[in-house]
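TA notes, week 10

Several of you asked for a full example with nothing omitted. So below is the full record: C-alpha coordinates for the whole chain, then the designed sequence directly under it. When grading your own attempts, check the secondary structure regions first.
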Protein backbone atom coordinates (compact mmCIF):
# COMPACT_ATOMS: atom_id res chain seq x y z
CA UNK A 1 0.00 0.00 0.00
CA UNK A 2 2.79 2.40 0.97
CA UNK A 3 4.60 1.71 -2.31
CA UNK A 4 1.46 2.48 -4.32
CA UNK A 5 0.96 5.77 -2.47
CA UNK A 6 4.56 6.80 -3.22
CA UNK A 7 4.17 5.92 -6.90
CA UNK A 8 0.93 7.92 -7.05
CA UNK A 9 2.61 10.95 -5.48
CA UNK A 10 5.52 10.70 -7.96
CA UNK A 11 3.04 10.50 -10.84
CA UNK A 12 1.24 13.64 -9.61
CA UNK A 13 4.54 15.51 -9.24
CA UNK A 14 5.61 14.44 -12.73
CA UNK A 15 2.27 15.56 -14.16
CA UNK A 16 2.69 18.97 -12.52
CA UNK A 17 6.23 19.21 -13.94
CA UNK A 18 4.99 18.31 -17.42
CA UNK A 19 2.20 20.88 -17.19
CA UNK A 20 4.76 23.54 -16.28
CA UNK A 21 6.90 22.47 -19.24
CA UNK A 22 3.97 22.72 -21.65
CA UNK A 23 3.22 26.21 -20.36
CA UNK A 24 6.87 27.28 -20.72
CA UNK A 25 7.13 26.11 -24.33
CA UNK A 26 3.88 27.84 -25.27
CA UNK A 27 5.05 31.29 -24.13
CA UNK A 28 8.65 31.24 -25.39
CA UNK A 29 7.73 33.33 -28.43
CA UNK A 30 5.91 36.13 -26.58
CA UNK A 31 9.14 38.00 -25.82
CA UNK A 32 10.75 37.70 -29.23
CA UNK A 33 8.24 37.11 -32.07
CA UNK A 34 6.39 40.06 -33.59
CA UNK A 35 4.33 40.47 -36.76
CA UNK A 36 3.79 43.49 -38.96
CA UNK A 37 2.95 44.51 -42.52
CA UNK A 38 5.64 46.36 -44.47
CA UNK A 39 5.66 47.94 -47.90
CA UNK A 40 8.22 46.31 -50.17
CA UNK A 41 10.24 47.67 -53.11
CA UNK A 42 7.82 46.40 -55.80
CA UNK A 43 4.80 48.33 -54.54
CA UNK A 44 3.03 45.52 -52.70
CA UNK A 45 3.11 44.61 -49.02
CA UNK A 46 4.86 41.87 -47.06
CA UNK A 47 3.27 40.18 -44.08
CA UNK A 48 6.31 39.61 -41.85
CA UNK A 49 7.21 37.88 -38.65
CA UNK A 50 10.36 39.08 -36.91
CA UNK A 51 12.19 36.56 -34.75
CA UNK A 52 14.46 38.47 -32.36
CA UNK A 53 15.68 35.29 -30.68
CA UNK A 54 18.72 33.22 -31.65
CA UNK A 55 16.80 29.97 -32.23
CA UNK A 56 14.23 28.72 -34.74
CA UNK A 57 10.47 28.66 -34.19
CA UNK A 58 7.55 27.23 -36.15
CA UNK A 59 4.20 28.93 -36.69
CA UNK A 60 1.15 26.71 -37.14
CA UNK A 61 -1.99 28.24 -38.64
CA UNK A 62 -5.38 26.53 -38.79
CA UNK A 63 -6.18 24.98 -42.19
CA UNK A 64 -2.79 26.05 -43.52
CA UNK A 65 0.81 24.97 -43.69
CA UNK A 66 3.51 25.14 -41.03
CA UNK A 67 5.84 28.13 -41.36
CA UNK A 68 9.47 28.27 -40.21
CA UNK A 69 10.46 31.41 -38.31
CA UNK A 70 14.23 31.71 -38.46
CA UNK A 71 16.13 34.40 -36.54
CA UNK A 72 15.56 37.75 -38.25
CA UNK A 73 12.89 38.73 -40.79
CA UNK A 74 10.52 36.11 -42.21
CA UNK A 75 8.14 37.04 -45.05
CA UNK A 76 5.13 34.73 -44.85
CA UNK A 77 2.87 36.31 -47.45
CA UNK A 78 2.86 39.04 -50.10
CA UNK A 79 -0.25 41.23 -50.14
CA UNK A 80 -1.72 43.71 -52.60
CA UNK A 81 -3.12 47.05 -51.43
CA UNK A 82 -6.63 45.62 -51.46
CA UNK A 83 -5.50 42.71 -49.26
CA UNK A 84 -4.54 45.05 -46.42
CA UNK A 85 -8.12 45.25 -45.21
CA UNK A 86 -9.33 41.76 -46.01
CA UNK A 87 -6.88 38.88 -46.09
CA UNK A 88 -6.64 35.40 -44.59
CA UNK A 89 -3.81 36.45 -42.27
CA UNK A 90 -5.92 39.18 -40.71
CA UNK A 91 -8.97 37.00 -40.11
CA UNK A 92 -6.99 34.03 -38.82
CA UNK A 93 -4.35 35.88 -36.81
CA UNK A 94 -5.82 34.59 -33.54
CA UNK A 95 -5.84 30.98 -34.74
CA UNK A 96 -2.12 30.40 -34.72
CA UNK A 97 0.33 28.80 -32.35
CA UNK A 98 4.09 29.23 -32.19
CA UNK A 99 6.61 26.78 -30.74
CA UNK A 100 10.41 26.77 -30.42
CA UNK A 101 12.24 24.26 -32.57
CA UNK A 102 12.43 23.01 -36.13
CA UNK A 103 10.51 20.11 -37.64
CA UNK A 104 12.69 17.16 -38.57
CA UNK A 105 11.67 13.63 -39.33
CA UNK A 106 13.36 11.53 -36.68
CA UNK A 107 14.78 9.12 -39.24
CA UNK A 108 16.57 12.03 -40.95
CA UNK A 109 18.24 13.45 -37.83
CA UNK A 110 21.99 13.16 -37.93
CA UNK A 111 23.16 10.49 -35.45
CA UNK A 112 24.57 12.28 -32.41
CA UNK A 113 26.34 10.83 -29.39
CA UNK A 114 25.63 12.61 -26.12
CA UNK A 115 27.95 13.31 -23.22
CA UNK A 116 26.87 12.33 -19.74
CA UNK A 117 26.06 15.45 -17.67
CA UNK A 118 28.88 14.77 -15.21
CA UNK A 119 32.64 15.36 -15.22
CA UNK A 120 34.72 13.18 -17.53
CA UNK A 121 35.70 9.99 -15.71
CA UNK A 122 33.00 10.30 -13.04
CA UNK A 123 30.47 7.56 -12.31
CA UNK A 124 26.76 8.32 -12.11
CA UNK A 125 23.68 6.26 -11.35
CA UNK A 126 20.89 6.76 -13.87
CA UNK A 127 17.60 5.40 -15.14
CA UNK A 128 15.43 6.12 -18.17
CA UNK A 129 11.63 6.24 -18.11
CA UNK A 130 9.21 6.60 -20.98
CA UNK A 131 5.78 8.01 -20.22
CA UNK A 132 2.72 8.06 -22.47
CA UNK A 133 0.99 11.44 -22.28
CA UNK A 134 -2.62 11.55 -23.49
CA UNK A 135 -4.27 14.63 -25.02
CA UNK A 136 -7.83 14.96 -26.38
CA UNK A 137 -6.60 13.99 -29.86
CA UNK A 138 -3.58 11.75 -29.44
CA UNK A 139 -0.99 10.08 -27.25
CA UNK A 140 2.68 11.03 -27.31
CA UNK A 141 5.77 9.74 -25.56
CA UNK A 142 8.30 11.59 -23.45
CA UNK A 143 11.59 9.95 -22.55
CA UNK A 144 13.21 11.22 -19.35
CA UNK A 145 16.67 10.20 -18.15
CA UNK A 146 17.28 10.73 -14.43
CA UNK A 147 20.81 11.11 -13.04
CA UNK A 148 21.32 10.76 -9.28
CA UNK A 149 23.36 13.68 -7.95
CA UNK A 150 24.32 15.44 -4.75
CA UNK A 151 23.50 19.10 -4.01
CA UNK A 152 26.10 21.36 -5.59
CA UNK A 153 27.39 18.79 -8.10
CA UNK A 154 28.49 20.42 -11.36
CA UNK A 155 26.28 19.72 -14.36
CA UNK A 156 27.80 19.57 -17.84
CA UNK A 157 26.19 20.09 -21.27
CA UNK A 158 25.28 16.84 -23.00
CA UNK A 159 25.46 18.50 -26.43
CA UNK A 160 26.59 21.71 -28.05
CA UNK A 161 23.90 24.33 -28.55
CA UNK A 162 22.49 27.75 -27.69
CA UNK A 163 20.93 28.63 -24.35
CA UNK A 164 17.23 29.48 -24.71
CA UNK A 165 15.26 32.11 -22.82
CA UNK A 166 15.22 32.17 -19.03
CA UNK A 167 12.49 30.08 -17.42
CA UNK A 168 11.66 29.54 -13.73
CA UNK A 169 11.66 26.39 -11.62
CA UNK A 170 15.38 25.58 -11.98
CA UNK A 171 15.00 24.59 -15.63
CA UNK A 172 17.37 25.16 -18.53
CA UNK A 173 16.57 24.77 -22.24
CA UNK A 174 19.40 24.37 -24.78
CA UNK A 175 18.64 24.50 -28.51
CA UNK A 176 20.68 22.18 -30.76
CA UNK A 177 21.74 22.73 -34.36
CA UNK A 178 19.35 20.03 -35.64
CA UNK A 179 16.30 21.76 -34.09
CA UNK A 180 15.98 19.51 -31.04
CA UNK A 181 15.93 20.93 -27.51
CA UNK A 182 17.56 19.56 -24.36
CA UNK A 183 15.63 20.22 -21.16
CA UNK A 184 17.60 20.13 -17.90
CA UNK A 185 15.54 20.15 -14.70
CA UNK A 186 16.73 20.70 -11.12
CA UNK A 187 19.68 22.82 -12.25
CA UNK A 188 20.95 26.13 -10.92
CA UNK A 189 22.29 27.41 -14.20
CA UNK A 190 25.54 29.31 -14.70
CA UNK A 191 24.94 30.25 -18.37
CA UNK A 192 22.80 32.97 -19.91
CA UNK A 193 20.30 33.38 -22.75
CA UNK A 194 21.99 33.22 -26.19
CA UNK A 195 25.24 31.76 -24.79
CA UNK A 196 26.82 29.13 -27.03
CA UNK A 197 27.81 26.02 -25.04
CA UNK A 198 29.73 22.96 -26.12
CA UNK A 199 29.37 19.36 -25.01
CA UNK A 200 31.17 18.77 -21.75
CA UNK A 201 31.04 22.43 -20.69
CA UNK A 202 29.92 23.33 -17.17
CA UNK A 203 26.42 24.86 -17.33
CA UNK A 204 25.30 24.87 -13.70
CA UNK A 205 25.01 23.02 -10.42
CA UNK A 206 22.52 20.51 -9.05
CA UNK A 207 19.98 22.11 -6.71
CA UNK A 208 19.26 21.18 -3.12
CA UNK A 209 16.23 19.15 -1.98
CA UNK A 210 16.12 17.08 -5.17
CA UNK A 211 17.31 13.57 -5.88
CA UNK A 212 18.06 13.57 -9.59
CA UNK A 213 18.84 15.73 -12.59
CA UNK A 214 16.09 15.16 -15.14
CA UNK A 215 17.04 15.32 -18.81
CA UNK A 216 14.77 15.28 -21.84
CA UNK A 217 15.59 15.77 -25.52
CA UNK A 218 12.55 17.04 -27.42
CA UNK A 219 11.95 17.22 -31.17
CA UNK A 220 8.97 18.82 -32.92
CA UNK A 221 6.77 16.17 -34.49
CA UNK A 222 5.12 16.77 -37.88
CA UNK A 223 2.42 14.31 -36.78
CA UNK A 224 1.40 16.18 -33.62
CA UNK A 225 1.83 19.72 -34.90
CA UNK A 226 -0.99 19.38 -37.46
CA UNK A 227 -3.69 19.02 -34.78
CA UNK A 228 -3.95 22.74 -34.01
CA UNK A 229 -7.43 22.54 -32.44
CA UNK A 230 -6.04 20.74 -29.39
CA UNK A 231 -2.35 21.43 -29.91
CA UNK A 232 -0.53 21.63 -26.58
CA UNK A 233 2.69 19.68 -26.79
CA UNK A 234 3.73 18.85 -30.38
CA UNK A 235 7.01 17.24 -29.34
CA UNK A 236 8.30 13.72 -29.20
CA UNK A 237 10.95 12.67 -26.72
CA UNK A 238 14.15 11.18 -28.13
CA UNK A 239 16.22 8.47 -26.43
CA UNK A 240 19.82 9.79 -26.39
CA UNK A 241 22.85 7.58 -26.97
CA UNK A 242 25.47 8.40 -24.31
CA UNK A 243 29.23 7.87 -24.49
CA UNK A 244 30.58 5.87 -21.56
CA UNK A 245 33.76 3.96 -20.80
CA UNK A 246 31.80 0.84 -21.81
CA UNK A 247 30.95 2.28 -25.22
CA UNK A 248 28.03 4.27 -26.66
CA UNK A 249 24.80 3.15 -24.99
CA UNK A 250 21.12 3.96 -24.67
CA UNK A 251 20.02 3.93 -21.05
CA UNK A 252 17.00 1.65 -20.79
CA UNK A 253 17.27 0.42 -17.19
CA UNK A 254 18.74 1.49 -13.87
CA UNK A 255 22.50 1.38 -14.20
CA UNK A 256 25.79 2.96 -13.13
CA UNK A 257 27.93 4.38 -15.96
CA UNK A 258 31.21 6.27 -16.23
CA UNK A 259 31.50 9.39 -18.38
CA UNK A 260 33.87 9.29 -21.35
CA UNK A 261 33.77 12.83 -22.71
CA UNK A 262 36.57 12.52 -25.26
CA UNK A 263 37.72 15.08 -27.85
CA UNK A 264 35.82 13.39 -30.69
CA UNK A 265 32.57 13.72 -28.74
CA UNK A 266 33.21 17.32 -27.72
CA UNK A 267 34.07 18.44 -31.26
CA UNK A 268 31.35 16.58 -33.21
CA UNK A 269 29.10 19.67 -33.49
CA UNK A 270 31.70 22.42 -33.26
CA UNK A 271 32.17 25.01 -35.94
CA UNK A 272 35.59 25.23 -37.61
CA UNK A 273 36.38 28.29 -35.49
CA UNK A 274 35.39 26.49 -32.29
CA UNK A 275 37.56 23.49 -33.22
CA UNK A 276 40.63 25.70 -33.77
CA UNK A 277 40.08 27.40 -30.39
CA UNK A 278 39.52 24.06 -28.64
CA UNK A 279 42.70 22.48 -30.06
CA UNK A 280 44.95 25.35 -28.85
Amino acid sequence: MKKHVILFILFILYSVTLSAQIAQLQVFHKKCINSRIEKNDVGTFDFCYYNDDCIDYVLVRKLDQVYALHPGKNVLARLSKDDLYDNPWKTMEQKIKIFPGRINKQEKLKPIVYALPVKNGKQVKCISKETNIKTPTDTFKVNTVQFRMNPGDTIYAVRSGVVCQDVPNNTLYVYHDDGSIAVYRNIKKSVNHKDRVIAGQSIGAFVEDKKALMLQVLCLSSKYIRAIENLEFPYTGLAPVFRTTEGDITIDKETIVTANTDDELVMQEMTSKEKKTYKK
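Residues 241 and 250 are 5 Å apart (CA to CA). Use that as a sanity check on your answer.
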